[in-house]
Amino acid sequence: MARVVRSTAFRRTCTRRGAVAVAAAAWAAFAASSRSPGDRAFFSIFGGAMKPAGKQIPPAEVVGAALRSADGPNKQSTAWEVLDTTRLPNQTALVTGANSGIGYYTALALAYGGAQVLLACRDPKRGEAAKKAMEEALQDAGRPAPTIEVVELDLSSLSSVRMFTTTFLKEGRPLHLLCLNAGVMAIPKFETSRDGFEMQFATNHLGHFALTRALATRIAESAPARVVTLASEAHRAPNQAYDLSDWPPSAAKYGDWRAYQQSKLANILFAREFSKRVALIPGGDLVSSNAVHPGVISTPLGRQQVLKGKVLLGVFQDRDEVQGAATSVFCLTAPQVEGVTGEYFRDCAATEPSEFATDAEAGRRLWELSEELLVKEGFFVRDAGEEG
Ligand SMILES: NC(=O)c1ccc[n+]([C@@H]2O[C@H](COP(=O)([O-])OP(=O)(O)OC[C@H]3O[C@@H](n4cnc5c(N)ncnc54)[C@H](OP(=O)(O)O)[C@@H]3O)[C@@H](O)[C@H]2O)c1
């Protein structure tokens, strides 16, 4: 698939101008129907981004009718609205960090659409609890439960990534939708992963890189397929290049917030570089790879420290978790995004990332150095003549 330049029509579809129309139409659809208290809770989020949506799911037809009369998804849209009436039969999806926050609602929306969803979690107990809650919500919404599976995957451990990918590939399963969502933020002190890498680098970038690198051929074989990487607007601040002179990131240059920003910049560089490389694999021209900023949502992401975590997300929160999952779900499922690859999305619209995130040479170097680390760690052996 060639990298698609955003068309005027695409921009128009993704514009924010539909916000008022969506809200009005949704309210009209709601008023015209006699829905359960659960639906009432859901529609209350049209009235304010901060109100919790609960885990109830409204019938897609109600939301779909509202959306069809509007311009398209926007900042206030929830994952369900974005999904609209899209159905995902025979689609296999994998969401990392699916037991909490944005990943939870992304996985739930995909299951609601009918996909078989793998919840990739580092703690299987937390994964099983999320699965149970999702199944209850789906049942409540009157949707036959698709298969939801919990798989153990600790992204900060290359052996855990290897164990998962080996099993997955051996089972011969397809993979159509991959959401690289898991993350940690602003760990106060320099901490290392089991493999000895700085923890935010290891979890947010290297683990996802290893996972995608190992599954790339299977994703291409399953195409059409989509890969979405959770980045952040934090990649812009401070506006500086990815620091490849400090590779892998060392204790000497460690700053809690800086390490997070750099890892999120790496996420965009990775998503763009993958969009080019996957196109070279047979079938890969029908695989898209985009990065997203989900908004600012008060999730447990800030658990590592009070001030730069909980307080920051709480103060700047601009939407709830269901809305936070919308841009991921949009990039994974929306017909408007078909053929769009190598882009950065926020509020369900393609937007320009920082100049450093579009540095193709930095993306290429990051990819190569990450591969070298994996080879060094024995994660994979490069075949003679193999291209990255
Ligand atoms: N919230 C925001 O405002 C915001 C803004 C911009 C970008 N983002 C990005 O959105 C993504 C999701 O964040 P969130 O806000 O939903 O946070 P969250 O609720 O804390 O979810 C993070 C998920 O990642 C998992 N995780 C952490 N370390 C892991 C590891 N080593 N292996 C596997 N899974 C691991 C967590 O598992 P446990 O529950 O076991 O810890 C959890 O399921 C992150 O990539 C974040 O950078 C968030």
Automatic annotation (TrEMBL):
InterPro entries, A to Z: NAD(P)-bd_dom_sf, SDR_fam
Pfam families: adh_short
Gene3D superfamilies according to UniProt: NAD(P)-binding Rossmann-like Domain (3.40.50.720)
Keywords, in A-Z order: Oxidoreductase
Listed GO MF terms: oxidoreductase activity
Protein name: Short-chain dehydrogenase TIC 32, chloroplastic
The species this protein was found in: Symbiodinium microadriaticum (Dinoflagellate)
